[in-house]
Design goal:
Layout: H1 4-11, H2 15-22, H3 41-56, E1 63-67, H4 73-80, E2 84-89, H5 92-100, E3 104-107, H6 115-118, E4 123-127, H7 136-140, H8 144-158, E5 164-172, H9 191-201, H10 211-218, E6 222-229, H11 231-241, H12 249-256, H13 259-264, H14 266-276, H15 279-285, E7 289-298
Parallel strand pairs: 1-2, 1-4, 2-3, 4-5
Antiparallel strand pairs: 5-7, 6-7
Helix pairs in contact: 2-12, 3-4, 8-10, 9-14, 9-15
Length: about 300
């Protein structure tokens, strides 16, 4: 699993720029266009929150655990419905953003959660964190399925009978290359090269092999109610995210703070290279990566 240091390396540097672009509780996960690409990104993100909370049956008084809560967009949506969300994250910048907004969030690894930590919940959402649960080392050592099963066992313990959880995750697509060939020495622009760079963008992280892989690992504890593919939604989300790079004076000041890591940290330069050359977008275009949404019910 990605460590706290690796999660902070992934998300903390973009904190100020992201909040300046998208508000106090920016959403860094795929929006929900559902075939209607005339929507604005803001509307599609609101529709995603409604889709998740409707699928989970969240209303006034509901307690919801948000695993990998980010900057708190879903926690805020839960609050607007009259529910109470409890978020966990490994990013200090995300934690600070949530708490500034009056949201309940904790700097906590899901592996350290038990029923005694916060009690039980009426629903659980995991929008994006599964991507970080397995490291490349875990994958090569054959631990990936065990990690996922441990997570779903925990969620099973945290929910009453018949309650639901939602999982949204980037996963490996049908054109994922051979992983032992995904190195920076691969030909520039090749599937192997851009996959290697994306791996540096998300240190300590390795995805699942499609929705069926996730459902299989959840099966001892949950049954799948609905699934959907969001690859095209993610492409549109990233297209509209492009405006994050439209600079204002405040954004220029924030960008200036990144000059030193750019000069001194090769790994950071690879991150910026991935952004500038839209390698994440390219992975979705080439179907190296896919996006799945799964609604599960406790078995």
């Amino acid at each position: 699993m990605a460590t706290r240091e690796q999660i902070e390396e992934t998300y903390n540097y973009m904190d100020e720029m992201w909040r300046l672009s998208f508000g106090d509780h920016p959403d860094l996960t795929c929006a929900y266009f559902n075939g209607d690409f005339s929507k604005t990104l803001e509307q599609a993100q609101r529709d995603k929150h409604d889709f998740i909370l409707d699928s989970l049956g969240v209303g006034p008084g509901a307690r919801v655990l948000d695993v990998g809560c980010g900057w708190g967009p879903l926690l805020n949506a839960i609050r607007q419905r009259g529910g109470h969300g409890v978020g966990v994250t490994l990013s200090t910048k995300q934690l600070e953003a949530c708490r500034r907004g009056g949201l309940e969030a904790h700097l906590l690894d899901w592996k350290d959660l038990t029923v005694d930590t916060f009690g039980r919940f009426d629903a659980i959402a995991a929008v994006g964190p599964l991507e970080h649960f397995c490291s490349p080392e875990d994958y090569w050592a054959g631990r990936q399925d065990d990690i996922y099963r441990s997570f779903f066992a925990l969620c099973h313990d945290l929910l009453p009978a018949g309650r639901r959880m939602y999982v949204q995750s980037m996963v490996w697509g049908k054109n994922a290359p051979q992983f032992d060939k995904c190195i920076l020495a691969a030909p520039k622009g090749s599937d192997e090269y851009i996959t290697a760079v994306i791996g540096r963008f998300y240190p300590g992280s390795f995805g699942a092999f499609g929705k069926d892989h996730i459902i299989r690992c959840a099966a001892p504890y949950f049954r799948a109610l609905t699934t959907s593919d969001g690859r095209l939604d993610y492409l549109e989300t990233m297209r509209q995210w492009g405006r994050v790079y439209e600079f204002s004076p405040r954004k220029l000041l924030a960008a200036g703070k990144l000059i030193w890591p750019w000069l001194t940290d090769r790994e950071f330069r690879l991150k910026i290279q991935s952004i500038r050359r839209s390698y994440n977008t390219e992975c979705f275009k080439r179907e190296i990566l896919d996006l799945c949404r799964i609604v599960l019910e406790k078995a």
